[in-house]
Design goal:
138 residues, two-stranded antiparallel sheet, globular, 4 strands, 2 domains, 72% helix, mainly alpha
């Protein structure tokens, strides 16, 4: 994928995650929790972790889509890409291990279905590859 296309996908991601953040805040204010979506039951105890993850993802994607210059020449940006790439790689590997060993995953009393781990291998795996590709490219 070209750099320009990845930036545009990251901008769309910022919009989608912002919409997710706003909907979670709206649902929690309107008293819709507990809520079951695609077999996952979200309770009021999951609101704070969702907000934290959404804010971190928005910050990372916004930096990538609007601030990062390619090719990456700044040591700080290369280090950032390597750290984020390593984090995504660890997440993808943990999801792969979960699938291989059939581990049960429960987050705040929410039992996560196995199909979520397939997404957890594909999406963070690709993001890890992209981060390492751009960080190590000369």
């Amino acid at each position: 994928m070209k750099r320009h296309t990845l930036r545009e996908v990251a901008k769309v991601g910022v919009g989608l995650i912002t919409a997710d953040l706003l909907s979670v805040l709206w649902f929690s204010g309107a008293g819709f929790f507990p809520l079951t979506v695609l077999g996952i039951t979200w309770s009021e105890s999951t609101i704070i972790p969702i907000i934290i993850v959404d804010l971190v993802l928005i910050a990372l994607l916004a930096h990538f889509s609007w601030n990062m210059k390619f090719p990456v020449s700044s040591p700080k940006e290369k280090t950032l890409l390597l750290i984020v790439g390593a984090a995504f790689l660890i997440i993808a590997l943990l999801h792969l291990v979960r699938i291989a060993f059939g581990w049960e995953l429960v987050l705040s009393a929410v039992s996560v279905p196995v199909w979520v781990s397939w997404l957890g291998v594909a999406i963070p795996g690709y993001l890890s590859y992209s981060c390492f590709h751009f960080a190590l490219k000369r």
